[in-house]
Inverse folding.
C-alpha cells in the first residue's frame, strides 16, 4: 500500500457495525458512508452512543463484526490488518496513560513500536519525534515514530486543560501541513472540529445525520434539526434554548 | 444579592504538609456569595475544588484550612463543632460532585437514596419521604419518577444519574449549593437541561449557587459572576457578561487558547504563565 498524492485516502461505504447477536444485538453503526481526501481532515461528531468511535475502531481493525466496504489509499480492507496497514494508519486513543506501561522507561515505551515493526534506526526515529513534538506529545502520539500517513484520532484532547489542548491542537495542525497527513477526528466538541477539519459528518443513533463543511457550520447553516440543536447547545447556556431541547432517536 | 451575603470568605488558606515545607493549595482568597450564581473557573491544580471543599470542611487529612473569616449565614464555619458542621452539611449547604457513579450507593435503588437524604434531616415517615422523593425526581424533570425510583445506579444513564444526585442534594432545600463540575461528563444537550434545573432553583427558591468548572465559556454563559483562579489565588473577579473585557493576562490567555465555532483562528494562543501571578496581591 502506498499513499497517493491527492485522491481518496479513506473510503467508507455503507459500513454497519453490530455488537452481540440475536435479540441482544445492538447495531452501533448503520450504513455509514464518507470519503476523506489525502491530506484532508475530516471530523465525526455526535453525542455519546452515536457510533462515532465504533466507525474509527472498525477502520483500525479493532472491531471484527462489520459489514460494508472500507478502503485506505485505494486498498480494500479485509477482516484482518497486516503490519503494512499499521505502518500507514495509526490510531491515537483518548487516554494515553491507559495505553502506556507504567513501569517501562520513556525510552523503552518509545522504542516499542519500532521493535514491533522491525524497523531500523530506533534512536534516530525517537530523536526526530522528540525534536518535532517534545516529550509530552511524543508520549501521546508515540506512533508518530512509525511515520504514518493517516491518523485516526479519538477525542485527542478531551481530558486536557484548555492551555494544553491548545498546544496539542497546534501540534496536530502543524504535523498535518508539514507531513501531508490525513486525519479522521472523532470528538463531541464542535469547536475542536471547526478548528481542525475542513468537513464533518454529524452522527446520531448509529447513522450519519448530515455531512457539511466547516464553513457551513460556522455560518450556522446546518440543514438538519439535530445538527442545529447540537450547534445551539455547543454555543453555551441559554434558558430558552434549554426549554426547547428535543430528543432525537 | 440580599443585604447580607450568604457566604463570606476572607483570607482562606488550604495547606498540605510536604517534605520541603507546606504546599499551599489555596492562598489567601476572599469572596462573597449571595442568592446568585457564582462561577469558580480554573485549570487543574488551581485550587477551585479545594475551595469548595473547604467551605464544608471536607478537605481531606492532612490538609489544614485557615481563614480570617469563613462565615455562612452568621455561623463561623471553622469555629463550630464537628456536630455543628454536620447539621449544616447537606441540610443548608449541599455539594454535587462530578461523577454520580462514585457518590451513589450501587446496591440501593436511587429513589430510596433520595428518600433517605430527606429523612436524615427531617422527621418523616418512610411513606412521606417516598412521596417527597418522587416529587423531587419530577422536579429534576425525570419523566417517569415511579419507574426510576426503583432503579439501581447502574441502570440509569449518566445524565439521569446526575439528575438523581441533584435531586438528592436538593431535597433538604439547602440555601447554598456547591456544584463541582456537575455536568462535565455529560453530552452538551443533557448538560444544558441539568443547568436549566439549577438555574430555576436559584430564581425560584432564591438559592445561592457556586459552580466550579474548567469550562470558561459555559460558566460565563450561565453564571452571574466569575472568579478566575490560578495557583491557589483569585486572579480576577468579573461579571460574567463582561468576561470578554477581562483584563488579566491569564484570563485573556484562557479565552484566546480556545478553538471557536464562530470564527477561524489560525493558531491557538498558548499560555505564557508568569510566576508573579502566584504572588501578586489578590485583585
Amino acid at each position: 500500500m502506498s499513499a497517493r498524492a491527492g485522491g481518496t485516502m479513506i473510503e467508507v461505504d455503507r459500513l454497519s457495525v453490530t455488537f452481540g447477536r440475536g435479540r441482544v444485538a445492538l447495531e452501533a453503526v448503520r450504513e455509514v458512508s464518507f470519503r476523506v481526501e489525502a491530506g484532508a481532515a475530516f471530523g465525526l461528531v455526535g453525542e455519546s452512543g452515536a457510533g462515532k468511535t465504533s466507525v474509527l475502531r472498525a477502520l483500525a481493525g479493532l472491531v471484527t463484526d462489520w459489514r460494508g466496504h472500507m478502503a485506505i489509499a485505494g486498498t480494500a480492507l479485509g477482516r484482518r490488518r497486516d503490519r503494512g496497514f499499521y505502518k500507514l494508519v495509526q490510531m491515537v486513543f483518548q487516554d494515553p496513560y491507559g495505553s502506556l506501561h507504567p513501569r517501562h522507561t520513556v525510552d523503552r515505551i518509545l522504542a516499542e513500536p519500532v521493535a514491533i515493526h522491525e524497523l531500523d534506526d530506533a534512536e534516530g526515529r525517537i530523536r526526530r519525534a522528540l525534536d518535532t513534538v517534545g516529550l509530552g506529545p511524543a508520549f501521546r502520539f508515540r506512533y508518530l515514530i512509525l511515520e504514518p500517513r493517516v491518523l485516526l484520532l479519538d477525542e485527542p484532547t478531551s481530558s486536557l486543560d484548555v492551555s494544553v489542548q491548545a498546544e496539542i491542537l497546534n501540534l496536530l495542525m502543524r504535523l498535518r501541513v508539514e507531513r501531508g497527513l490525513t486525519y479522521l477526528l472523532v470528538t463531541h466538541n464542535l469547536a475542536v472540529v471547526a478548528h481542525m477539519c475542513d468537513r464533518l459528518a454529524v452522527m446520531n443513533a448509529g447513522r450519519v445525520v448530515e455531512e457539511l463543511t466547516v464553513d457551513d457550520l460556522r455560518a450556522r447553516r446546518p440543514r438538519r434539526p439535530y445538527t442545529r440543536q447540537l450547534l445551539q447547545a455547543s454555543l453555551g447556556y441559554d434558558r430558552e434554548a434549554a426549554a426547547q431541547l428535543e430528543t432525537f432517536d | 444579592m440580599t443585604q447580607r451575603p450568604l457566604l463570606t470568605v476572607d483570607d482562606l488558606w488550604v495547606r498540605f504538609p510536604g517534605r520541603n515545607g507546606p504546599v499551599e493549595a489555596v492562598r489567601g482568597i476572599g469572596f462573597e456569595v449571595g442568592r446568585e450564581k457564582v462561577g469558580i473557573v480554573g485549570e487543574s491544580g488551581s485550587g477551585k475544588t479545594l475551595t469548595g471543599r473547604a467551605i464544608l470542611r471536607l478537605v481531606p487529612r492532612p490538609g489544614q484550612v485557615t481563614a480570617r473569616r469563613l462565615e455562612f449565614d452568621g455561623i463561623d464555619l471553622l469555629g463550630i463543632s464537628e456536630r455543628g458542621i454536620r447539621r449544616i452539611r447537606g441540610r443548608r449547604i449541599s455539594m454535587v460532585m462530578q461523577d454520580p457513579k462514585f457518590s451513589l450507593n450501587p446496591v440501593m435503588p436511587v429513589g430510596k437514596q433520595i428518600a433517605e437524604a430527606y429523612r436524615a434531616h427531617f422527621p418523616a415517615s418512610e411513606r412521606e419521604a417516598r412521596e417527597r422523593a418522587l416529587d423531587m425526581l419530577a422536579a429534576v424533570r425525570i419523566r417517569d419518577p415511579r419507574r426510576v425510583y426503583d432503579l439501581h445506579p447502574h441502570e440509569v444513564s449518566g445524565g439521569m444519574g446526575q439528575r438523581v444526585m441533584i435531586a438528592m442534594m436538593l431535597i433538604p432545600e439547602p440555601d447554598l449549593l456547591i456544584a463541582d463540575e456537575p455536568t462535565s461528563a455529560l453530552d452538551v444537550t443533557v448538560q444544558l437541561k441539568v443547568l436549566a434545573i439549577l438555574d430555576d432553583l436559584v430564581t425560584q427558591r432564591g438559592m445561592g449557587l457556586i459552580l466550579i468548572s474548567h469550562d470558561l465559556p459555559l460558566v460565563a454563559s450561565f453564571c452571574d459572576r466569575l472568579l478566575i483562579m490560578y495557583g491557589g489565588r483569585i486572579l480576577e473577579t468579573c461579571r460574567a457578561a463582561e468576561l470578554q473585557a477581562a483584563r488579566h493576562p491569564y484570563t485573556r490567555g484562557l479565552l484566546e487558547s480556545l478553538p471557536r465555532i464562530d470564527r477561524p483562528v489560525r493558531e491557538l494562543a498558548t499560555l505564557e504563565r508568569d510566576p508573579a501571578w502566584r504572588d501578586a496581591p489578590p485583585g
